[in-house]
Design a protein that fits this description.
The complex is a heterodimer of chains A (about 290) and B (about 260). By secondary structure, chain A is α/β, with parallel strands linked by helices. Chain A is built from 10 helices and 15 strands. In chain A, strand 2, helix 2 and strand 3 form a beta-alpha-beta unit. Chain B has about 260 residues and is an alpha/beta fold. The chains are: A alpha/beta (about 290), B alpha/beta (about 260).
């Protein structure tokens, strides 16, 4: 049953060094506050799973939290490269990063298989692609009914899935809407689940088909207003495209990135203080 | 014919937009494909159905999305489903008429690389990777490919096959048992290429205004072949250019950027 707790406690109690962690959210509702807390607590040797690593995993990889990355599209959306991801793959900085690479269809089916408690997902996919040559978790099988060849992807079962949502009620039932990506599948595939939310309300006031994650599939609910920044929360705030553009410069060089992480994450107590420090540093940039 | 001035990039976007028939169901990647698909929707194809891999079906964005999951896509869509559903029911379920792709590298059989330049394990350049492309290339009824023509992009041999076109040509794609027909057109800033019957090698069908065969060859890493009769692309009309520039102006204002970036 979901426990309402501060984010720092949830990360300390539920994410351990060496864990397999999925932080999902397809451009929308990316759990940045939770990602920062993982960096702040200096978790190490994590296997990080995410369809689109995005800036959140660029930060975690550059900060040295990841040993292995499972992903299907690793760019800065609308901007270009993830420089920390590239530096880890191309030059092993800050250390070597193993990668397990899928397509979106493959990895989303692997989450569905995990949530469905079957050992693999099956799809029409990867035919003619070189990806299966480099990823042992993609194989081909024969359909027992028609004899067709189909792709099989090993199920994803994270130790912990972390997502951000709009609301929870006082019991810990979670409501999210808008672009949902694979958040529900990732959460149901995991052993433990942390959900950060914009707010706690008395009544979720949701219609019957709304995407609700009942309190009894969630381990921890943490209230972090703005916790998806610089991604967005539909109905609350928009994506900060300027930050995504600015990240291209921040992450390009190791020294500048390291200084940014020190000042904005290690030297701040929590996400609210991060936002204050960021506003100050953006003000300084603009005055230059 | 007017004396409008336009860039080669505008010509490419307009030429691609024209190829999308009204009411077609189109699976759209971000960047150039998204620009062309939205231009088509704002000009000759108002009922074009745009599907984005993040989940929106029937999106009608007012400005071009900067990311594949912008809020505007969800707010203007007929419905928003999960990403796993997009790939399982809608793409694999053969509901997509046209898949619209771009790439870092393409070869003469329309195979695409968006993964690495150099060796996979020790890449010179690590690219973003597959995203939705391998299965779009496999399952969309037809695939259109949109990218600027250069020797770096149009290569003799791909460093990595991310998404298959016609494999090594001829019947190779048919043997893979894919449900989609594969690439039907490659639209560049110089010309339009289509697969030749039987060999499935991309050959030049049309040159954009003022472009020579020598320019196309100079920008292609294999000995490029031309159709028996090579046509000429009509230049962008005043209406097409105005719609495209207006869309890009609105987008720049909304995102605080010059224009949509790749």
């Amino acid at each position: 049953m979901a426990q309402l707790m501060p984010l720092s406690e949830a990360i300390a109690q539920l994410i351990h060094d060496g864990d397999t962690v999925a932080m999902e959210g397809f451009t929308h509702l990316i759990p940045f506050a939770a990602g920062h807390e993982v960096i702040r607590q200096q978790k190490r040797d994590l296997t990080l799973i995410r369809m689109t690593p995005d800036v959140i995993y660029d930060q975690l990889i550059g900060a040295g939290c990841a040993r292995r990355l499972v992903f299907s599209w690793g760019g800065n959306p609308g901007v270009g490269s993830l420089h920390r991801l590239r530096d880890a793959v191309e030059h092993e900085w800050p250390h070597a990063l193993e990668i397990e690479e899928h397509s979106h269809a493959g990895l989303s089916n692997a989450y569905v298989a995990g949530a469905s408690n079957i050992p693999f997902g099956v799809l029409r996919g990867y035919q003619g692609s070189d990806l299966p040559r480099y990823n042992d978790h993609i194989r081909f099988i024969q359909c027992p009914f028609t004899g067709e060849e189909l792709a099989a992807v090993r199920a994803v079962r994270p130790d912990v899935t972390v997502i951000h949502a709009q609301k929870a009620d006082r019991k810990g039932n979670v409501l999210l809407w808008g672009i949902l990506g694979v958040q529900k599948e990732a959460l149901l595939a995991a052993r433990r689940a942390i959900v950060t939310v914009e707010e706690i309300v008395d009544d979720l006031d949701a219609w019957p088909n709304a995407c609700i994650l009942p309190a009894w599939v969630v381990t921890a609910v943490c209230v972090v207003p703005g916790g998806a920044f610089p991604s967005y929360a539909q109905g609350y705030y928009q994506r900060d495209n300027r930050f995504y553009l600015a990240w291209d410069d921040i992450a390009r060089e190791r020294e500048r990135f390291a200084a940014w992480v020190q000042r904005h994450i290690h030297d701040t107590a929590d996400f609210a203080e991060f936002r204050r420090v960021l506003r100050e540093s953006q003000g300084t940039e603009e005055q230059r | 014919m007017s004396d409008l001035t336009y860039t080669t990039s505008e010509m490419m976007t307009v030429a691609a937009a024209r190829m999308l028939p009204d009411r077609a169901v189109c699976f759209v990647g971000i960047g150039l494909p998204s620009t062309a698909a939205n231009l088509a929707r704002l000009t000759h194809a108002p009922e074009l159905v745009l599907i984005y891999e993040s989940g929106p079906i029937g999106a009608k964005p007012v400005v071009l999305p900067l990311s594949i999951g912008d809020g505007d896509l969800a707010e203007t869509a007929d419905t928003v489903v999960s990403t796993s559903e997009i790939f399982r029911y809608w793409l694999q379920g053969e509901r997509i008429d046209i898949g619209f792709l771009s790439a870092a590298q393409i070869d003469r059989f329309g195979n695409l690389n968006t993964t690495v330049i150099g060796d996979y394990r020790h890449p010179r350049t690590r690219l973003p990777g597959a995203g939705g492309a391998p299965e779009i290339a496999g399952s969309a009824r037809e695939v259109f490919i949109l990218l600027k023509q250069s020797r770096r992009a149009f290569v003799e041999k791909l460093d990595f096959v991310t998404s298959v076109g016609f494999g090594n040509g001829g019947e190779a794609r048919a043997r893979l048992g894919l449900s989609g027909r594969g690439p039907v057109a490659v639209i560049t800033d110089l010309c339009i290429m289509e697969p030749e019957t039987t060999t499935n090698e991309l050959i030049v069908m049309r040159l954009h205004q003022g472009v020579t065969r020598e320019q196309v060859q100079a920008a292609t890493g294999w000995p490029v072949r031309f159709a028996t009769t090579v046509g000429a692309t009509d230049p962008p009309s005043e209406h097409e250019l105005a719609a495209l520039r207006d869309l890009q102006r609105r987008t720049a204002l909304a995102h605080g950027t010059q224009s949509e970036r790749q």
